[in-house]
Write a structure and sequence with these properties.
four-stranded antiparallel beta sheet, globular, 96 residues
């Protein structure tokens, strides 16, 4: 549902479509040279299709993902494929 359990500098989370999440920062970074880390998980008893967190790219052939000073968009992909899939839990943090 996009609720935040504890913010640590995240003002909101936007659901951008299947398997896509935009994490909006409380205070914008001065540039896009920050590091981020994320993890995804599911709450179902079927753990065979784990989730991976990767930076979302609007064009996978380029290296410029949707990384801005005010937000970072990541996607959840199923283990063993490049298919996007919603996650029940998305964990994200950035340091810059």
């Amino acid at each position: 549902t996009g609720s935040i359990r504890d913010s640590f500098g995240i003002s909101s989370v936007t659901d951008e479509g299947e398997g896509r999440y935009r994490f909006n920062f409380t205070t914008a970074y001065s540039n896009t040279n920050y590091a981020w880390c994320g993890a995804m998980s599911t709450a179902t008893s079927n753990r065979t299709n784990g989730r991976h967190a990767t930076q979302y790219h609007d064009n996978q052939s380029t290296s410029n993902g949707l990384l801005t000073t005010s937000s970072c968009e990541i996607m959840s992909t199923m283990s063993g494929s490049n298919s996007r899939a919603d996650a029940d839990f998305a964990y994200f943090w950035a340091i810059g």
